[in-house]
Amino acid sequence: MKLYVCTLCELGRAGFANTLRHAMPSGVEVLEIECMSGCGRDQTVAFRADGKTAYLFGDITLADLPELQNFAKLYAASPDGNFADARVLGNLRNKAIARIPG
User: Fold this and answer.
1) Which of 58, 77, 80, 90 is the S-S candidate for 67 at Cβ 3.0 to 4.6 Å?
2) pLDDT at residue 28 in the model
3) Which domains does the chain have, with CATH numbers?
4) What angle do helix axes 65-77 and 16-23 make, rounded to 10 degrees?
5) Sheet holding 45-48, edge to edge
6) Cross-strand pairs, 4
7) Which of 43, 57, 48, 44 is nearest to 89 (CA)?
8) Cβ atoms of residues 71 and 24 within 8 Å
9) CA of 57: how far to CAs of 9, 41, 97, in Å?
10) What sign has the CA pseudo-torsion 12, 91, 95, 81?
């Protein structure tokens, strides 16, 4: 799975990608991308895996790190990236900008 991190957002400019590299479970490749057009919802990150629904989240803060870690585990375990009940996403469900079919 890939986790994309906007480097133009405030946290992105401060090295958020490195923080995520050290915090994510194994199997998560953290990649930096210059812009994901989520500028109205600074900081944006996106999760993507082959054959799975992709997710774009915004308004991410350092306080969201535990929920991002949890999402990575749930996403890895999901066969298609979809969740029957969005409550398992915690506060991230309120920070979702887009869900893109795989």
Assistant:
1) 90
2) 98
3) 2-100 (3.40.30)
4) 50
5) 29-33, 2-6, 45-48, 54-57, 96-100
6) 31, 46
7) 57
8) no
9) 12, 8, 5
10) positive
Diameter over CA atoms, the chain: 35
DSSP β-ladder status, 96-100 and 2-6? unpaired
Write down the residue that tokens 């996106």 correspond to.
46
Structure tokens at 10: 């405030």
Do 56 and 97 contact (CB within 8 A), yes or no? yes
Taking only the tens place, the pLDDT of each residue in 18-56 is 999 999 999 999 999 999 998 899 999 999 999 999 999
Rounded Cα distance, 90 and 99, in Å: 16
Q: What pLDDT shows up at residue 102?
A: 83
